[in-house]
Amino acid sequence: xxxxxxxxxxxxxxxxxxxxIYARCRLTNNGxxxxxxxxxxxxxxxxxNLVLVNNGSAALDLAYHALDISGSVVTTPFxxxxxxxxxxxxxxxxxxxxxxxxxxxIDPERIEAAIRPDTTAxxxxxxxxxxxxxxxxxxxAQRHGLRVIYDAAHCFGTRRAGRSILDQGDASAxxxxxxxxxxxxxxxxxxxxxxxxxxRARRMINFGFDEATGLIVDPGSNFKMSEMHAAMGLAVLxxxxxxxxxxxxxxxxxxxxxxxxxxxQHIDADVTNGGGYMPIAFADKSTCERVHRRLESLGxxxxxxxxxxxxxxxxYARFGETRHSRDVADRVICLPLHTKLSLADVGVVCDAVLxxxxxxxxxxxxxxxxx
Length: 371
Ligand SMILES: *Cc1c(COP(=O)(O)O)cnc(C)c1O
Fold this sequence. Notes:
- By secondary structure, this protein is an alpha/beta fold.
- It has helices at residues 11-24, 32-45, 56-66, 82-89, 108-114, 134-144, 195-204, 227-237, 240-258, 285-297, 323-331, 343-370, and strands at 50-53, 72-75, 93-96, 119-123, 147-151, 159-160, 163-164, 171-175, 188-192, 271-272, 279-281, 332-334.
- A seven-stranded mixed β-sheet has the order 1-9-8-5-4-2-3, with helices on both faces. Strands 7-6-10 form a three-stranded antiparallel β-sheet, with no helix packed on it.
- α6 links the parallel β4 (119-123) and β5.
- The longest helix has 28 residues, at 343-370.
- It is globular and about 80 Å long.
- It binds pyridoxal-5'-phosphate (PLP).
């Protein structure tokens, strides 16, 4: 059982889009399918100012550039490496604030202590699609005159109080990578608060050209999404309701079965999770590793996502030392979650987790007896 598997829409439908592309012979440069996908995503997610780009890391990078961030950024070490590697690649140093041990998101209380004289932004991550408390982040940002760039890579379909969370902060970057809930094979998007910044970003992804005049008016590079990628997005978007509902059902089933036996990520009651990931945490590192190996031996792939905590890696160790992030990273695994998985498969995975937990505790008891 794979931990993840990309969703493939109807081939017939995808071919229909490709035929259109062949007929028009327009492959990229803000073509009609990119325009159509932009509009349909804004509509589906109920947001404005969305810019499509060629991957989620480029989306983060674009947000940093469009908002003129420099110096250092306060972020979390409990994330996929891109949350730190993208700013660092742009010579913006991460400065780590520790996570909340219940939500596994950056702890708003700890952001202030990580602000340096050269800090110009805060970049929280909605970890596994669990929304950060935006009001508390915004209060810190306002007090210190900082921009807020959300790494919302996991947040397609996440809602709080019925509303998308992608319009929070100055910008939110999403990933449409093949393994994410909604995808365009490779792709991503940024959602900007300010429409003037959004217009600037649209020029920046095309070398800084102003489309109307042909003049180079902004710094820029090439972050454009192709028509082939937009075609995949349009075909997958037709099935987005089904994908989200199905994944949420699997997550609910996992959480019901395992909730009394493992630590689950705390998710506020007013949040509709996007069903992106199914993380669970064990009591300690050795139990986590034992269950991980046991499931592997049964042909059930799990991922130690996000292990190790970035503040323990050679590239990023100098940016902070965060106790809770290290602790959670040592204890957490993500269970299989994708649309090819049945509810019965979820049952099999849960049984395997519970069995290996019982083995672990009887082993611990035997060791204690000997001692
Ligand atoms: C997937 C991911 C990214 C990067 O997205 P790509 O589309 O793979 O470049 C960034 N941040 C987080 C938290 C992610 O999970």
